[in-house]
Amino acid sequence: MKTIQILYIFIAVILFLSCKEDTERISNTSDYDSYLQIDHQDKILKAEHELAFWNARIKEDSTQITSMGPVAQAYTDLFQATGEISYLKKAEQILQKSADIAAFKRENYWLALAQNYITQHRFIDAKAAAKIARAINDNKAATMVLFDVSMELGEYNNASKHLEKIADHNDFNFLIRLAKWSDFKGNLDLTIKYMEKATKLVEQKNNKALMLWSYTNLGDYYGHAGRIKDSYQHYLKALEIDPSYTYAKKGIAWIAYSYEKKPQEALRIMDNVIANSKSPDYYLFKAEISEYLADQTQKEDNIKDYKEGVDNPNYGVMYNVHNAILLAEEYKQYDKAMALAEIEINNRPTPQSYDLKAYILYLKGEYQQALNLVNAHVVDKTFEPVANLHIAQIYKVNGLLDKMEVIKEELIESDYELGPITAVKVQNL
């Protein structure tokens, strides 16, 4: 049965590709091959040096509060360089202790802790920490973090109020949040406009760290807009600043896979990324490419590697969405998947969380319940292509074909963002 299913997918992909033969080639291996030779060792050594230096200043049985902030930052840097979750948890422990005992600028430790929680997808905890920081000092920094948390929690009215409070069109931190708000509202042109303005500001100041972040975010947004060449150039700009930056390499891999239909090149890039980072979700990307290649063995191997990676209690809820989809799509374990979806809704009641539950209901065959859920919590509340695909699938099985066709027309424009495998699902609606 699996062999037949793989054959059907392979034929569908070939048919889909027949319409894509004239796709413009964007990437060139000579542009980025040298970056694939760069590992994260320099970053790791630098962070380890900082850690050793500041740890040496923390005397036994002494708080040494001024040293604890840099120690937490060093652990955070190590997490970003390696993807090793234990470093993020160590940073959390240091920040929690610092926030509890600090006598001076205590709000900064609470805000850093809130950002740590956001990375862990512990958004309710992040909101509590940010509110403590605001109670200590109701400043712009606290408002910015509260905006970030409100967006993650689906508290969009609160997010709007926080955004108004920090409005300043000449401020980078405001502009990137205004861009995020515009993206949420479905206005991609405005999103790009504000991100471009924010990027110019940090370029003028030659702030390398913020330039790196800005280039990759612009790369993503350009990709969503179908501006693939601009997307590619901005990932390269990021690699010029940091040749080891895995996020930019993954962005180029996605262009090779989704736009240029060069899956083997995408796999080559991702092998380099995985060699330098332990983030489990990279294996899911490789599994998708393997499915595209109709290589079931490689797909299963990558899923196995993903499952081994996330089998670590330190990850907490970070991979609940990925795990739920995997359980439902690959293993038909709908009850386990649904339990994770309910946790997501409790922790993060966004349209995307409700979409996850509705999609599982759809896969389970509970079509009317899925329809009721998307109508109540997803339709017209998000512009994410994946959520819209799920809505269209649910409309179709419920006989709402006119509504389904409207969404299908919109989704065809998002085939690059969705990827070849998912784009075939759109064609088959």
Automatic annotation (TrEMBL):
Keywords: TPR repeat
The keyword Transcription regulation is assigned to this record: no
Listed InterPro entries: TPR-like_helical_dom_sf, TPR_rpt
Family annotation (SUPFAM superfamilies): TPR-like
TPR repeats: 212-245
Protein name per the record: Uncharacterized protein
